[in-house]
Amino acid sequence: MIQHIDDAKCVGCGVCVQKCPLDTIRLNEQGKAFIAYPDDCMTCFVCERLCPAGAIFVHPFKEKLPPVFPGPRYDAVEGNDLRDKEVYHA
Amino acid sequence: MPDRNTHIVESDLLIIGGGSAGLWAAKRFTELLPEKKVVIVDKGPKEWGGLMSMAGGDFDAVLPGDDLDAWIEDFVYYFDGLCDQEQIEEILRRSNDRLEDYQRYGCEFFRKEDGTLKSIPQRGLPHVKLYPAKLVGRGGEDMVRNLVKQLRKANVTSLGRIVVTDLLKQNGRVVGAVGFDSISGDFYRFRAQVVIASTGVGGWKTSYGKNTPTGEGVEMVWNAGVRLKDFEFSRVWNMPRYFGWEGQTKLIPLGAHFVNAKGEPFMEKYSPVLGVNTDPHFITIAMAMEIRAGRGPIYFDISRINPDDLILLRPQNGWQLMNYEKLCKLGMDLFRDNTEWLPQMTISYGGMEAGIKGTTNVEGLFAAGTARSTEPGVYAGGFALMTTSVTGHLAGEGAAEFLASASPVESDRVDEDIDALRDAVYAPLGREGLTPHDVLRKIQTAMFPYDVSILKTEASLTRALDEIVRIREEEIPNMAAADPHYLLKLREIRGMALVSELYLRASLERRESRAGHFREDFPNRAEDGLAWILIQKDENGAMSFSRKRVPLERYRHPITRYYQDNFRFVTEEH
User: Fold this and answer.
1) B307 inside domain
2) B236 has a chain A CB within 8 A of its CB
3) Which of B76, B131, B200, B252 has its CA 20 to 30 A from that of B548?
4) Is residue B181 part of a domain?
């Protein structure tokens, strides 16, 4: 999922805004890109790859989805998933 | 509601959906009728190429000298007889033309030292094979770029970020459509002599290229009275639990396999003949059985792959390389570490019933790509890029032939009340209500459980259907959108709810197991199962089901064996 756009690095070219398939990113009033619709990111990396300034960071983990299997191993409760652990979000 | 601009867009051919099929339809149509105006409209970015932009670039093709009949027989076997033999024959016959077109437009495929194309066999089938793109990780992007260049030369107009909601007809013939811009909120009215729907399939937003095929195109054609088929089939795919990965299709034939929590390979137990080298749908059934029996989680083991083959597998560029490098930093090197994988329902296989050149039961509307159903829930690697290019090309040809014989229409007057359609589109904007994301999560929660998506039973399908009907009645009408972006999401979730209901009802209707449809309560084929389940909206808006028998007496290839007979799924300790 997209995690961060560095305001200081963003040059406001708008390429990420144009190319995001899900319209996740928009330009703010200062002409800088920001994550407008974070829930819609599908982790395709298009924005990070096309950013000429290296301002965007997309984490490779996808979003949590409702479980396919029952039981604590697969349940979407906090704590049983790597995405809950800080070390994977450094 | 603020005043919204209305734009009128005129063309001879309107193509709804700018992925592989839509682009190919435009290419073929402009070759045949270069003076005619073509407009492609897509809900995503202008000229992004749809899901093709994220594809690896693997392409199935029957090369000159290959035995076409042998390929058809492979598919009759692989589809457990539920194969439209005339359709698959025409698709396969034209597959090499599209592969050659791609190479002429500048796409490169992997070649062996002797200069011939490298092929990879698929699913343990004797003849079906794919040809991988030269650049692992960027093949689909290259295809989009090169095809778009061709269309620019042909003066095709492309519009992005516009979602089409409704088709317009005149005396029953489709003559246009309406939709809105998901950024500005502006209203669009399209006028056309003929329309191609290449809107893709429905699906359940499971990340990595599966967040855009949601089913608003299915709702659009459903409301226009188009006959649908194959909705009992969905793609259940093995996916890493935490991240996306493209290319298991190539990893498995070269030696990768799944193991359970004890480190035991298990596919040989369920299929002594094919073992792991089989269709992912059957692997997911085995995975679900292993996990249910307490032997999960399931890991993907790549250690047996011959190092010489790694060049075909390790991402070299594109999003797949970036993904791979980031995962390695997290200690998740797919080529070194065992990674946890899960089965995940991703997209629907249901689509429009169409003739060879994309004709539907609605005059003036042609179907292309995955929006028209071509396979019963099993998936050979490389099949989608092949079928979408060929069926797009065929629909472009069909639309051109239609224009040659159909009388021109002045599409000012249409059967629909455009003001009413417009009011309905914008009604959720700015009101209080449920967010599309809340409803999305409820639909996913109902649909994802393994006994709904993989090991289906009457009880579990009925349980899910009750919930989806409740969502349709109580939640869908009460969704709200804060802005035009969310209005698009809202349309997607409506489509997803419709696709979910079509899937559940069709799955209940097919009381047998065949190809990609596994009913644990009916694990064998039924005598009357060799028929497609068709669904159409009746005059009350309800789902009307009928069966169309597979016309074996007309076909050249008898059914001599069944792919599913390679498997023995025995319910245990359950």
Assistant:
1) yes
2) no
3) B200
4) no
